[in-house]
Write a structure and sequence with these properties.
111 residues; alpha+beta; 4-stranded mixed sheet; two-stranded antiparallel ribbon
């Protein structure tokens, strides 16, 4: 499954909207605040990205909050175990799948 990284700043209102969008759609992501993370700044520069919010999804970059493009590129969602509420990353578009929680060993099905 593709990793999702979101480059943000604390003062960017669109970044707050982008984080809320990812959470609402149950997409696991890593946030990197470029005002405080020098490595994130360097990564943005290396990729030629000059604005936030910016998403890195697998090998693809999405600059700005292009929700349709983000949903097109993301190949997973996060579900909660019905027993222990642990967060599990599962693939999209696989229909009904069986999942086993690594924390409590509960098996359940999800769509």
């Amino acid at each position: 499954m593709k990793d999702v990284t979101l480059f943000t700043t604390q003062t960017c209102p669109h970044c707050k909207t982008a984080k809320a969008f990812l959470k609402q759609n149950h997409i696991q992501f890593v946030e990197k605040d470029v005002n405080y993370d020098a490595a994130a700044q360097q990564e943005m520069t290396r990729r030629g990205i000059r604005g936030v919010p910016a998403f890195i999804i697998g090998d693809d970059a999405v600059i700005g909050l292009d929700q349709a493009k983000v949903l097109e590129l993301v190949d997973h969602r996060v579900v909660a175990c019905p027993n222990c509420q642990a967060k599990l990353r599962v693939p999209n578009d696989k229909g009904k799948i069986s999942v086993r929680c690594p924390k409590c060993k509960t098996s359940f099905e999800t769509k």
